[in-house]
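Regression test case RT-17, inverse folding.

Input:
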C-alpha cells in the first residue's frame, strides 16, 4: 500500500467521522427542539385545563397516545387563537373528547336456530 493510498484512506475515514459527528449533533438538536416544544405544550395545557381535566387527558395518553396528542394540539390552538374564555373543566373536556373520538361501530350477533 502506497503513501497516497494510505493518505486517501485516512482522509475518507476523517470525513466519515466528521459526518457522523455532524449527524449526531443534528440528532441532539432535534431531540432538544422536541423537548422544548413538549414543555411549551404542557405549560399551555396547564393554563387551559383545570387539574381534573388535565388528569383525564394524562390518563387517555396512557391508552391512546396519538388521540391524546391530537386533542392537546386542538386545545392549544384554541387557546392561542383566544377562542377559550375560561379554563376547560373536566365535564367540558368530556364533551370535546366525545366530539373528537371516532364513532364506534356496534355489532349485533344473531344466532340462527
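Golden output:
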Amino acid at each position: 500500500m502506497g503513501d497516497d493510498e494510505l493518505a486517501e484512506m485516512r482522509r475518507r475515514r476523517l470525513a466519515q467521522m466528521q459526518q457522523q459527528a455532524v449527524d449526531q449533533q443534528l440528532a441532539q438538536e432535534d431531540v432538544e427542539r422536541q423537548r422544548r416544544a413538549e414543555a411549551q405544550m404542557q405549560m399551555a395545557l396547564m393554563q387551559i385545563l383545570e387539574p381534573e381535566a388535565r388528569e383525564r387527558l394524562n390518563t387517555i395518553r396512557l391508552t391512546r397516545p396519538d388521540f391524546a396528542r391530537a386533542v392537546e394540539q386542538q386545545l392549544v390552538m384554541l387557546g392561542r387563537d383566544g377562542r377559550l374564555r375560561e379554563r376547560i373543566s373536566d365535564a367540558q373536556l368530556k364533551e370535546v373528547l366525545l366530539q373528537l373520538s371516532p364513532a364506534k361501530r356496534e355489532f349485533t350477533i344473531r344466532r340462527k336456530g
